[in-house]
Amino acid sequence: MNELIHTVVDPHLARPETRATAHDLIRALLAPLTRKNCWTLAEHTGHSAPYRMQHLLSRARLDEQALTVALRGYVTIRLGCDDVVLVVDETGDVKKGQSTVGVARQYSGTAGRTENCQVAVYLAYTTPNGHALIDHRLYLPRAWTDDAARLQRAGVRWVLIRRNRTTAELAFYRCYAPEPVPLARLVAVAGRRWRVEESFQQGKGLAGLDEHQVRAWTSWQRWSLLAMVAYAFVAVCRQAELRRYPVPDGLVALTCNEIARLLHALFASRPDAGHVLAWSVFRHAHQARARDWHYRRQTARES
Question: What is the pLDDT of residue 172?
Fold first, then answer.
């Protein structure tokens, strides 16, 4: 983990305080928390409030493009370059309200129906023995791209346009190779497409890829990217263990889920009673402020 953080993450964060917060966030993303957002991650890592993590996601100086390139290099080196298949696929996350960037009534392949949701496209790097997510883009439906003021409020800096060619019956693959390949190879490459579904499942289940609870463009980009970094670490650990130690008879291969459980069991820190009580007071104070603001807005509308 330290190698990943120091070589992949640290060079792209300007201040030591921000780097320390990123370290805490990535480690907390892999913890078996019921919910993962800035509040729960901050409490888990011993912060007194969520503000440091919120600052990292929204305002801190972070070169996201350079971090994406570094993540890609890390995964390529650690998972290897033999028999690589790149898989592009989308995943949808059901959301409430309309303020979160990209959220609209749209079809979600994950839900299998039209939902109020956010849809993102990811690039998975897959080998026969491992896979990880290495890039991502948020899809913006027409309800967003046709509303310049809405884009500005959410801090959107570019627009991804996608044409939906979904059919109700069949899925088609367009095959290309620089030289003729046997049918078995084309079938094997097409079968690798399901690795991206595993990456979505593990990225969400292990690293909170879908639990961001942030609204703005920059915050979504950073949360997703840091979750991908955390998930890549677990995927690389699994690959390294399988290379170093053959799977014993009678056991299944070590999984990413088991590696995450071992990391938490062996290295998790236990908060003291004062920290737990301080967070309880913080939540109650925040709820009181939210209640007061709600009453003020309601009174203003009725007056």
Answer: 58
